[in-house]
Amino acid sequence: MKLLYTAVAAMLLQQSFGSISNLVVPMTAPVMVETLGLNPALVGAYSLFTYGMGVLATLLCGSFIIRYGGLRVSQVAVLASSAGLLIAITGELWLMAVGAMMIGAGLMVSTPSSSHILARHSPPKVAPLMFSIKQTGVPVGLMAGGLIIPFFIYSGGWQAAFIGVSLIGVIIAVALQPLRRRFDDDRNPTHPFKIDEVWFNLRAVLSHRYLRKLAFASLTFVGLQGCFVSFFVLFLVQELRFDLKTAGIVFSIAQIAALFARIFWGWLGSRYLSPPHVLAFLGFAMSLSAVILTFANPNWSVAIVTVIASIVTGTALSWHGVLFAEIARHSPPGKVGPYTGSVLAFTAAGQMTIPALFGVSLATFENYQYGFYFAAFLTLTAGILLLYRQNTEPSSGHGF
User: Fold this and answer.
1) What is the per-residue DSSP string for 320-380?
2) DSSP three-state, residue 248
3) Interval 21-80: pLDDT, tens
4) What angle (nearest 5°) sits at the alpha carbon of residue 17, between those of residues 294 and 87?
5) How confident is the model at residue 345 (pLDDT cuts 50, 70, 90)?
6) How many domains would you assign to the chain?
7) Is residue 398 in a domain?
8) pTM, full prediction
9) What CATH code is carried by the domain that includes residue 60?
């Protein structure tokens, strides 16, 4: 069990950095919009570049995980995000697009590489809980980012946030190195990279009834998550007239709910409810909470806004562990990394397109409501499909 706990802690650390690095642009956006004269809707375009590369990276990473090991790929993912931040520091739009793609590759590859490691060391009965604890790295990173990024901004300007977070990534990559021999002992240095293997894994996921529905759920769930992470701070500053510091504090406090909720949903899915039922409920709950958020106005107190935001994060930012454990449970031996990467291609597609459409809606209608309505409708649909599957298909979920 000691090895399992070490694996969870190490992978939680690298997941946390992925969240922090991806939060730098949304958190610095209010300052960059004012300083560089940018359109706020460009945050959606940033997500398009970030997760566009994420789609490609998750499809290609499976063979690299098998050949070099999950720990090594995790280190490369962290360093890629760090490099992307340094490239984006120029403020030039085309370089920020390049930096976004590197950050996206690092962010998305971190999950299949960590899933590969955890699947080897987690007993099936506790896998949803262990994966959920590992995935708390996302709200931990968002919570930490919500505090340290404004600190960097106020201390040295928005560029300081890019530099400071990048240095944190280098430190994490170095700190993971002593674990490499133990966690990458299953690597196959002679494993060839074949492009047709990518399509085989993707077709296998799409031909599996349950994995196909998990892929759609991940696309919609992460789409709502992306809209919240990308636009919530802007929403607070521009619509509710919060100052940046208060907005960052509200954002960080809301992540505490996600931190505990991820563990709770994993525990619930391991002990009392089936994982498909948990995921279906989360689809319904996050849809409702996003709609409630759209009613917020400047007359609402900071406390009420924080409570509503915590409900959003407790659902829309808390599904990952249960879903990734289900992917691992329904993947063939040795294929957890590649299959997770294939499902994550749909996850990245959701992050790429749904926040971008949110940005288009914001630029067109100059309000945040329609974007949240659209994202909420998609998650509601995913919840219905998962519930329908639970009631009408075999509980094992297998069946190509």
Assistant:
1) HHHHHHHHHHTSPTT-HHHHHHHHHHHHHHHHHHHHHHHHHHHHHHSSSHHHHHHHHHHHH
2) helix
3) 988 887 887 787 777 776 666 666 777 788 778 777 877 777 888 888 889 999 999 999
4) 95
5) confident
6) 1
7) no
8) 0.69
9) 1.20.1250.20
